[in-house]
Amino acid sequence: MAVKIRCRKTGANNDPCFRIVATDSRAPRDGKSLEILGWYDPKKTKANFHLELERIQAWQGKGAIISETVRSLIKKARTVPMAAPAPTTTSATPEATPEKTARA
Fold this sequence. Notes:
Blueprint lengths: L2 E10 L2 E10 L10 E6 L8 E3 L1 H9 L3 E2 L1 H12 L25
C-alpha cells in the first residue's frame, strides 16, 4: 500500500478548509484517511495552518509520498519563527566580577 500525505477538503462552499492527512494513494480525495496530521485554512491571513512535523517525518520515514501543496506548507512551517522560550531567571545575587588591580 502506497501512502501519500495530501490535503483533504472540508468546509462549506466558498469557504474551503483542508485537513492534512496520511492516506492510501488509491483512496479518493475525501475518503478514509490513516491519520490526520494538521490543517490548512487558505482564507485566514495569520496562522492559517498547523502541522505536526514529527508525525509527518515519521510517515516520510516509512516511505510516504508528500504532495506539492503539503511540501510548500512544510517549507513555510520551517521558516516561520517558533515562539521564543520563556526567559529563565537566575538567583537574585549578582555574580562576582574580578576586579582589576591598579598599577602605580
